[in-house]
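Request: Could I get any protein with tokenized structure?
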Amino acid sequence: MTIDNDGVFWIYLFMLDVGAIALFVIWIANYPDWEKLRCASRRGRFLVKLGTDLVEDEINRRLQRPRALRKHSKAALRTLEYLNPQKEAHRGQPAEKKRCYLCPRDQDRKTRTSCTNCGNRVCQEHLTMSTVCDECL
């Protein structure tokens, strides 16, 4: 009897499923009152919590370098509410140049850099090393 790679994958998933259900049985034996009021799907909630706890460290490790994330990974992290779309829009270099909001209009300094706190465009003169404008300091 031979098992190809797909067979090994399904055996792995089966073992993972059996292990998670066994862990649920042990958890309920040790903590019988855990979410007893909401008994509709205690096992489902436990499995979701177990899954998020298992991947939490990996997610936090990946969030340390958000520029290294691929498009699909960023979309998944946005769905899980680990990435905030508003903060992403204010971070880094915006696409088009706009006038520095602290410079007088007659100087008309254009810049791509924006303040990480308020999102307003700031030129090099009104910029600190952490991309925060003088007013937000």
Summary: Residues 5-30 form the longest helix (26 residues). The beta strands are 98-99, 110-111.
